[in-house]
Amino acid sequence: MPAVRDFRNFSFSSARIDRCGRHLGSKLYWKLYVIENTIRIVIHSVLTQQLGANWWGVALDPKLVPKVTGRRRSYIAKPNNASPGGSDIHLLYLGELTDIVRANSHQFVPVVPDANNWVAILESIRVPRNLVGHMNFPNSFDRGAIEFAYSRLPSLLGHLAAHHIPVLIPK
């Protein structure tokens, strides 16, 4: 099978665009989905354990609250579309999730000793995540950052298990 190349570097071909989309979906998009949602779960699980069920009001940057409220309103205004979930953590972007870990590192480090490394890992995939999420074609450096972040998820979840932190899925 020939290598899939960015369709924008060639003359127009619907088949080439289709191959690019299928390639990104099967190789990268699903990994970003897993990474971003696992980070949500880890944040929710650790901060619930450390701060209690109302961690949102304690750990979130107050400047982020109106943004999240506006995003929620946008979804409510379109009731025919799927909901991102009941918990507002599902309305946060990857960079905002990273900021929560960074700002609350003192809560994460006792459970996830390499929490600061995770901040760096998440920062390293912010641009590649946006490239893929906005239907662009990442280069090998971007793909490598996504692959690396994905490969580290078992160790992140292992920290929760080692500290007997229940894995809580925000609803």
Question: What's the overall average pLDDT, rounded?
Answer: 95
Name the structural class.
mainly alpha
Q: Poorly predicted ranges (pLDDT <50, ≥5 residues)?
A: none
Series of secondary-structure elements, N-terminal to C-terminal: HHHHHHH
Radius of gyration based on Cα positions: 18 Å
Question: What's the shape?
Answer: globular
| Strand content range | under 5%
Helix content: 55-70%
**What characterizes the major β-sheet?**
none
- Provide the number of structural domains: 1
Can you count the beta strands? 0
Number of helices: 7
Short account of what is shown:
With 171 residues, the chain is mainly α. Helix content is 65%, strand content 0%.
Structural summary, described in words:
The chain is mainly α and 171 residues long. The chain has one domain (28-162). The chain has seven helices and no strands. It has helices at 14-51, 55-59, 65-76, 94-103, 105-108, 115-133, 140-162. The protein is globular. 20% of the residues are buried.
